[in-house]
């Protein structure tokens, strides 16, 4: 199978890095196709833990070519910070390729992100303040800066001047901030140009040629389906397409090249930032999930909102993405619970919804209808086959599978690289 997409099937933080790492030994290219450094992947290899924010997690596997494609927005300072940190730990980062068409996050994007969010007050979206949204807005408004612009100072200066003509009025007159000088931005971006140059390529062509040779390409989505700008809980979403369809536009490959779509779900649900979350827990059960699952953002450190598994969301994301396989992570976190509720439908003002309501207002007011399953107390971190799991854990997985719209092909049972139960080959 030459091309597969990994996507988050909830609100992010599902453990996509672990799934990518599981496949990395069998693939040739790992491609980040959306988002920026507003999300993170944590990969544990032996006693080493790696927190990646902008780089594809495949960079940790020998022989894999990591690619940052055109759909990504890049904070160049963060990029080099991550590369230097990995190099210092002995990771070979020399094969990284970056699309010439990827857009650049500048100082003014970060500034606007932070001041705009504060200005919203109670209507805040929950942005990370890293300039992602304003950079995508400039891309759509056709005043963005692309990686290739750093290699032509005249073009770069013209584009920065055009962008700041409007933004400085906003910063000074609305937000009471100082104006940002063109020279400040241009000089900063130009300082990275020569270091970037060897990494920059026509990555769409590189990936096309790799697929033509029969090599295997894995597309790694940032964030998740419920944060997708078109299909998520708008406006409490990210600014890019985090769904499988985004892999085609975000990388420049045709959708007919994608053979597998792998959706990642936790055995429960988490969310960071504002927005509706029907199964959210505000009691000791939520605190148990947060502490046991160490549910704090890889990028921000923010505590994640925690709740039970939501089957209608899984079915929705299976449809939107064409999921062929689910990978369930963090099943081990549920160990020790006597009963495990699962949301099977919603109640909205006395009306039952078996699928997500069309109206965001209805979804915001939805309360979960639960079915409970018996828990288990046995340590499952050493399980390597489905039969190694306790009977109640097996039953829980099979029940979730029947509700979620696609087979569960792998199950994470601990944070380690090898702490996984594989039921079906993800690429077959």
From TrEMBL:
Question: Could you name the active-site residues?
Answer: 13 (proton acceptor), 41 (proton donor), 139
Q: Which Pfam families does this chain map to?
A: Adenylsucc_synt (PF00709)
- Report the catalytic activity: IMP + L-aspartate + GTP = N(6)-(1,2-dicarboxyethyl)-AMP + GDP + phosphate + 2 H(+)
Record-linked SUPFAM superfamilies = P-loop containing nucleoside triphosphate hydrolases
* Keyword Glycoprotein found: no
Q: What is its EC number?
A: 6.3.4.4
Molecular-function GO terms, alphabetical = adenylosuccinate synthase activity; GTP binding; magnesium ion binding
> Which cofactors, if any, are listed as required?
Mg(2+)
State what this protein does.
Plays an important role in the de novo pathway of purine nucleotide biosynthesis. Catalyzes the first committed step in the biosynthesis of AMP from IMP.
Q: State the family named in the UniProt similarity comment for this chain.
A: Belongs to the adenylosuccinate synthetase family.
The name this protein goes by in its record: Adenylosuccinate synthetase
Q: From which organism does this entry originate?
A: Microcella putealis
Which taxonomic lineage does the organism of this UniProt entry have? Bacteria, Bacillati, Actinomycetota, Actinomycetes, Micrococcales
Q: Which gene encodes it?
A: purA
């Amino acid at each position: 199978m030459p091309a597969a997409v990994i996507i988050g099937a909830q609100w992010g933080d599902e453990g996509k890095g672990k799934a990518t790492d599981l496949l990395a030994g069998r693939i040739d290219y790992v491609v980040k196709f959306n988002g920026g450094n507003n999300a993170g992947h944590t990969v544990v290899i032996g006693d080493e833990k790696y927190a990646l924010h902008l780089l594809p997690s495949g960079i940790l596997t020998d022989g894999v070519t990591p690619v940052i494609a055109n759909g990504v927005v890049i904070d160049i300072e963060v990029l080099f910070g991550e590369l230097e940190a990995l190099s210092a730990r002995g990771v070979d980062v020399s094969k990284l390729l970056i699309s010439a068409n990827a857009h650049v996050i500048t100082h003014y994007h970060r500034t606007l992100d932070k001041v705009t969010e504060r200005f919203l007050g109670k209507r805040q979206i929950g942005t990370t303040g890293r300039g992602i949204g304003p950079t995508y807005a400039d891309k759509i408004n056709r005043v963005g800066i692309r990686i290739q612009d750093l290699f032509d100072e005249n073009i770069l200066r013209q584009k920065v001047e055009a962008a700041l003509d409007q933004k400085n009025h906003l910063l000074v007159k609305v937000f009471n901030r100082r104006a940002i000088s063109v020279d400040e931005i241009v000089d900063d971006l130009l300082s990275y140009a020569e270091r970037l140059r060897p990494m920059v390529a026509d990555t769409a062509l590189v990936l096309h040629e790799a697929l033509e040779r029969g090599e295997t390409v894995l597309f790694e989505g940032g964030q998740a389906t419920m944060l997708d700008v078109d299909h998520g809980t708008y406006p409490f979403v990210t600014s890019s397409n985090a769904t499988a369809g985004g892999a085609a536009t975000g990388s420049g490959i045709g959708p007919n090249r994608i053979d597998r779509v792998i959706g990642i779900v936790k055995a429960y649900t988490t969310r960071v930032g504002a927005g509706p979350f029907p199964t959210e827990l505000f009691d000791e059960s939520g605190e148990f999930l947060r502490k046991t699952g160490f549910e704090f953002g890889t990028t921000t450190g923010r505590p994640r909102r925690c709740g039970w598994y939501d089957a209608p969301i899984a079915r929705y994301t299976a449809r939107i993405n064409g999921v062929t396989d689910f990978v369930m992570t963090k099943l081990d976190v549920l160990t020790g619970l006597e009963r495990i509720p699962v949301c099977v439908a919603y109640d909205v003002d006395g009306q039952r919804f078996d699928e997500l309501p069309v109206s965001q207002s209805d979804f915001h007011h939805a309360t979960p209808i639960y079915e409970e399953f018996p828990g288990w107390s046995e340590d499952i971190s050493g399980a390597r086959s489905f039969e190694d799991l306790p009977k109640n854990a097996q039953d829980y997985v099979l029940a979730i599978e029947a509700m979620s719209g696609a087979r569960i092909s792998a199950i994470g049972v601990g944070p380690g690289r090898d702490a996984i139960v594989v039921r079906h080959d993800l690429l077959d």
